[in-house]
Amino acid sequence: MRVVLEILDGPLLGRTVELNPGQSVSVGRTAKSQLMLPHDSFLSGMHFQIECTETGAMVKDCNSSNGTWVNGNKILNQQLTDGDQVAAGQTRFKIHLEEAPQTPEEQRRTSTVLFAAPKIEELQALAAQQKVEVSTLTPVQQAVVKYLQLRPAPLYAILNSNIDERVPHLLITSGEVYQFLSEGLTLGDQMPPGVYLVYLPATSPLLSRLVAEGWGKHWTLFFTCNHPFGEVRQHLRQFLIMQTEEGKRFFFRYYDPRLLQYLLPSCSPREITQLFGPIQSFLMEDANDPANLLEMMVSPQGLMGKVVKLG
Question: From the CB of residue 124, how many other CB atoms can be counted at a distance below 10 Å?
Fold first, then answer.
């Protein structure tokens, strides 16, 4: 059984998120939630959660301020049926229960439609509501943007909304292709990390915005890769949950530039090859001096690092 959650109201009207058995999605107003609806001020930060089981779907209220409603009735936990309407804040959602996909390719489908670039009218509406001004770039930030724009391979970034909850706002209004990286990952009672993958064309205004807002604040990791978005995302997801020698599983924060700067030089050649995969280079601020940009890449001789002085 597969669950399709359809948004019935607001600027994301008609968007859907698909869940296969064992997957879940949290819905709310802030970056605490996997599906974030920042325009609905009546939603709690994390309002409710939908879980797909082998036989159907369950909805659970996450101690929200205004409650979660199913077909007009306030609930805490409830089994859902096909066609049910879930209401939270000022937004309604419709539940569609479908037969589980049969092919391995279909089983790997995620909510790409939901996180693709919104329509132009949606971008204008959200941008008008948020009224966020881009800061004037400092000389160091200008040098960062120029260096990243001149990379010969396509540029991507991993953004950490656990450090700055404005990340989803920036992405929603950017018009660029992006997706939640931790979608569907579970580890006991721990919330998955709020990290997003975004593709950054050289002419993207979002690049300057990310550098202006995030350079030196440790929530942006840039990298270059010639592979398509879906393959890049699949590669990065495999490192989000790791396991110790004792068998204890944990969320691995490799996307934090402060960690990656010191992690890569300590890795074995085999680990370097696994972590880089199709990635050509990682680019990040120097944790000790944001006026330096660090570029890490793999050569036949092993890991290579370059310090680019920006000031």
Answer: 13
Q: Please, what is the average pLDDT of the chain? A: 85
Q: 115: phi > 0 → left, psi -120 to 50 → alpha, else beta; which? A: alpha
Residue 233: pLDDT band (50, 70, 90) is: very high
In tens, the pLDDT along 7-21 reads: 998 777 888 888 989
pLDDT at 149: 95
Who wins on pLDDT, 105 or 57? 57
pTM for the model stands at 0.63
Residues 42, 26: Cα–Cα separation, whole Å: 16
